[in-house]
Design goal:
Elements: H1 2-15, E1 41-47, E2 50-55, E3 58-62, E4 79-81, H2 92-97, E5 104-107, H3 109-112, E6 123-125, E7 131-134, E8 137-144, E9 160-167, E10 170-174, H4 182-185, E11 192-196, H5 205-215, E12 219-223, E13 226-227, E14 230-231, H6 234-244, E15 249-250
Parallel strand pairs: 3-4, 4-5, 5-6, 10-11, 11-12, 12-15
Antiparallel strand pairs: 1-2, 2-3, 7-8, 8-9, 9-10, 13-14
Helix pairs in contact: 5-6
């Protein structure tokens, strides 16, 4: 009887473990099966920091701005991630124009404070370090901030979120607006990384490349690369990464359509 009691207690404890306690090592899968199907990911740049991802049938909007017309032809969002309060990441009018009724919206507190009560039932408010699972995707909020003295006014630590998404052992990193902070350099087992690089708001291509070479994602996508003096040199970023580690694939997508 005592053994049965301890067994039931153990099963209960396992049932309440959050996604933040999952083992971070990627799961090796050989061929399709019911428990861990082969992952499918379709990445659709919208503009600058805004994208749509279709991941194993789940539609994810990242920093949706640009109004309803920017998302013409896209599926209705299941999950919406917003990184920060600035207008190139958060636009309330866009949220209100889109059909987001079925979506869960993950935001930092600073964004939640700017969203009207009509969205409250949909919101998951995450601080840096928090995790939440929705639609089989474990989402971890990670720090994004500036460290250069002249840039501290743009992004202070703790206000915004980068995100690490994990499903079936595959991990995707979305940097948001950040410099090459220790928390980014400490990332491990990242399959795809979306990394910003624009001055004066985030970091140089050299800093971005150096950070990428340290945390070693399998693939990296430069995004958010328009600054006050035009576009960052993403071809140079690609060269720096490939010269430093040929195992890291650098994918250049068109984030700034004419």
């Amino acid at each position: 009887m005592k053994n049965l009691y301890f067994l039931l207690i153990s099963l209960f404890c396992l049932s309440i473990v959050g996604c933040g306690n999952r083992k971070k090592e990627p799961i090796s899968v050989e061929g399709p099966n019911e428990e861990f199907p082969v992952s499918t990911l379709d990445i659709r740049p919208i503009q600058h920091a805004t994208m749509v991802m279709e991941w194993n049938g789940i539609t994810i909007y990242v920093d949706p701005v640009g109004g309803k017309s920017a998302f013409q032809g896209q599926k209705q969002a299941d999950l919406i991630l917003i990184t920060d309060i600035h207008g190139d990441h958060f636009n309330l009018e866009t949220l209100q124009q889109l059909n987001t009724k079925k979506a869960k919206i993950m935001v930092p507190l600073a964004v939640a404070e700017r969203i009207p009560d009509e969205f409250t039932p949909q919101l998951d408010v995450l601080d840096n370090g928090d995790t939440k699972e929705r639609y089989g995707i474990c989402v971890e909020a990670v720090p994004m901030y500036n460290v250069r003295q002249e840039a501290l006014k743009y992004h202070k630590k703790g206000r915004g979120n980068g995100y690490v998404l994990e499903m079936n052992g595959e991990r995707i990193y979305i940097s948001g607006d950040t410099e090459d902070v220790p928390e980014m350099r400490a990332l491990r087992n990242i399959d795809k990384a979306f990394v910003c690089m624009n001055l004066p708001y985030t970091m140089t291509v050299e800093s971005a490349a150096d950070a990428v070479l340290e945390f070693k994602p399998k693939e990296v996508y430069p995004y958010h690369y328009r600054g006050t003096d035009g576009f960052s040199d993403v071809e140079r970023f690609k060269s720096l990464v490939e010269e430093g580690n040929t195992d890291i694939g650098v994918i250049l997508l068109n984030w700034y359509k004419p």
